[in-house]
Amino acid sequence: MPPKSVLVTGTTSGVGRALLEHYARRGVRVISVNRRRVPELEAEYPSARFESVDVRAREDVRRLVHRLAEAGELPDVFIFNAGINRVDNDESFELTAYQAVLDTNLFGVLNFIQPLTELAAFAGSRHLIAISSMVNYVGNPYGLGYTTSKRALTTCFETWSHMYTGTDLVFQRVMLGPVRTAIYTMEGRLPPWMVWIKNLFSASPEGTARAVARLALTRSRKVFYPWRALPLYFAMWLLLTLVPGFFRGQKTLAGRARRAAGPGRDPAREG
Ligand SMILES: NC(=O)c1ccc[n+]([C@@H]2O[C@H](COP(=O)([O-])OP(=O)(O)OC[C@H]3O[C@@H](n4cnc5c(N)ncnc54)[C@H](OP(=O)(O)O)[C@@H]3O)[C@@H](O)[C@H]2O)c1
């Protein structure tokens, strides 16, 4: 049976927007949590409820959870989808960018989990779904913050899925391969051969939304989507394992460009 209501974070684009469309079309009430208002989106989905909350703002997230609980409007399914990536192919490590990714992709989910699990009203059948990545199993040399955040998120959800076995709380994770969205196209800064390979194995946001919605109807702990991306990540793992330093030369590309542009300019942030 489809859920009565679903909360989705990050519905302004990509997978989140496709989830909003998927559920709204089927008459499911969507609580859409975005960090900014998009009037056109709100006009397009009048049945959805739009909450302006930045997932990094712990107190705002807590207030939202309590408000929903007090109104008896906690949804059956929570899909923690909001996420960012910072392509990191400089030889130097930038802590601020790294932390920004963790604040959104990891703490932006955990900010919901603490108030939710504290609530007595939270008892009842609910699915908590983390949108993670297949990169979790490989490590992405171009996105250390991204890989770290997804690994930690996956570990939390895996642990909770065991801890809450046999209860009505279902912790699930979606291990996504490449999906053609804004995060994905941002990686146009990757070497062309990698972008070409990713294209070959990528999925559409709509197909991804259907896969996530199917998972929410089960008690499975995880799903890999799309399956055809698995060889890509396996090949990447093989390269990293068998060819030490395979990505070394590529890592310095942005650093070289930055130095060539001169002090105070960062081409990676201007593109
Ligand atoms: N695309 C892929 O290849 C791929 C692969 C594996 C996993 N994933 C995961 O899939 C999820 C969705 O990504 P996507 O590919 O659909 O990317 P996307 O099109 O860039 O969508 C990301 C969404 O997250 C929102 N967001 C970012 N920071 C936020 C914050 N602090 N508070 C609230 N919302 C915030 C964005 O809102 P704004 O419009 O305000 O920025 C946007 O709605 C992410 O968790 C991503 O890591 C994607």
Question: Overview of this structure, please?
Answer:
The chain is α/β, with parallel strands linked by helices. The termini are far apart. The chain has a single domain, classed as 3-Layer(aba) Sandwich (Rossmann fold). Helix 1 crosses helix 9, helix 3 runs parallel beside helix 5 (107-118) and helix 4 (95-105) packs parallel to helix 6 (144-163). The protein has a seven-stranded parallel β-sheet, with helices on both faces. The protein is 48% helix and 14% strand. It has helices spanning 14-25, 39-44, 58-70, 95-105, 107-118, 144-163, 182-186, 192-201, 205-216, 230-242, 248-251, 253-261, 267-270; strands spanning 5-9, 29-34, 49-52, 77-80, 126-133, 169-176, 222-225. Strand 1 (5-9), helix 1 and strand 2 (29-34) form a beta-alpha-beta unit. The structure holds NADP nicotinamide-adenine-dinucleotide phosphate. NADP nicotinamide-adenine-dinucleotide phosphate binds at residues 9-16, 34-36, 54-56, 81-84, 104, 108, 131, 133, 176, 178-179, 181-184.
